[in-house]
Task: inverse folding
């Protein structure tokens, strides 16, 4: 597919979402994007990625996402075949070519594989790809209005001593099996513990508990989410004391309010834990304030960057 792709090719949207992918140096529609089966990103989950969203034609906190991605790539001793300016240009181009006003934009670096399929990761040729698909939410509109009912899984999150959770990764089997446990229990989502009585995070989100006007988000064993960081900054702006610190399951259950944070929807309320109401069982006032300010920031040039739609080609 030529670099000059102007519009996504018509594609079967019952199989793939609409969108555009940059892979192996060219732009293509999502249904044409392929990685070789020998890529260790697939065979060994040997990859890192990041996701930034676009809302009403603007990237939200693009710098923070790109920074985290570059740090993750370096931590895994991979080499990105593009520099930072080129990476950002590609992300803009993806959204411009797809023509999206709201989008979910993922950048990925995989280990790739060596031409001889050597087992030595140093011999692998790393692969970079990125794609833009429509914006998606962790919770539906109805769930966001009433708050989610979340299961606390017996499965502990993979140990931070084994896999560094601050390097955004695809080691998701604990999270995915946790989701099945939640669905089996009749719940809508899941939070995993650290195996020592503290909560960590869920599939694609961090967690905040509010008690007596103070917000706490687990400090360890979690991805340092950009939305988590944003929520901490917004709490500071709102005069709400907030910290990253250990958060026990007991403390979570005794919270007045809980909200999750994710690029896929921002702060969103959790109003039940395993069917039991959190506080009065309704989304709380601090959750509402943080959420409102979060969405306000999307038009603020200090927090967001206009997509360069002239790159559509
Ligand atoms: N925790 C995990 C495991 C995630 O995968 C994600 C996002 O995908 C998050 C937390 C939330 O991070 P962010 O706010 O940067 O989207």
Result:
């Amino acid at each position: 597919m030529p670099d000059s792709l102007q519009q996504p090719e018509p594609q079967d949207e019952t199989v793939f979402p609409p969108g555009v992918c940059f892979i192996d140096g060219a732009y293509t529609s999502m249904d044409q994007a392929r990685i070789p089966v020998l890529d260790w990103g697939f065979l060994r989950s040997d990859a890192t990625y990041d996701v930034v969203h676009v809302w009403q034609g603007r990237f939200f906190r693009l710098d923070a996402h790109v920074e985290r991605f570059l740090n993750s790539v370096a931590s895994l001793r991979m080499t990105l075949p593009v520099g930072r300016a080129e990476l950002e240009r590609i992300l803009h181009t993806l959204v411009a070519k797809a023509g999206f006003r709201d989008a979910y934009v993922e950048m990925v670096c995989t280990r790739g594989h060596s031409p001889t399929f050597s087992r030595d990761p140093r011999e692998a040729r790393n692969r970079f790809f990125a794609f833009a698909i429509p914006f998606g939410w962790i919770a539906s509109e109805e769930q966001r209005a009433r708050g989610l009912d979340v299961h606390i899984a017996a499965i502990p999150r993979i140990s931070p001593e084994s896999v560094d959770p601050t390097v955004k990764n695809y080691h998701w089997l604990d999270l995915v099996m946790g989701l099945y446990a939640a669905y089996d229990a009749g719940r809508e989502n899941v939070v995993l513990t650290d195996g020592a009585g503290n909560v960590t995070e869920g599939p694609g989100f961090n967690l905040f508990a509010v008690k007596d006007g103070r917000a706490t988000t687990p400090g360890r064993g979690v991805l340092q989410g950009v939305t988590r960081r944003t929520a901490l900054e917004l709490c500071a702006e709102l005069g709400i004391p907030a910290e990253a610190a250990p958060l026990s399951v007991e403390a979570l259950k005794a919270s007045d309010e809980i909200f999750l944070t994710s690029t896929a929807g921002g702060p969103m309320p959790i109003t039940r834990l395993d069917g039991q109401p959190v506080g009065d069982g309704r989304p709380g006032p601090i959750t509402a304030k943080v959420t409102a300010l979060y969405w306000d920031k999307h038009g603020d040039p200090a927090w967001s960057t206009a997509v360069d739609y002239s790159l559509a080609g």
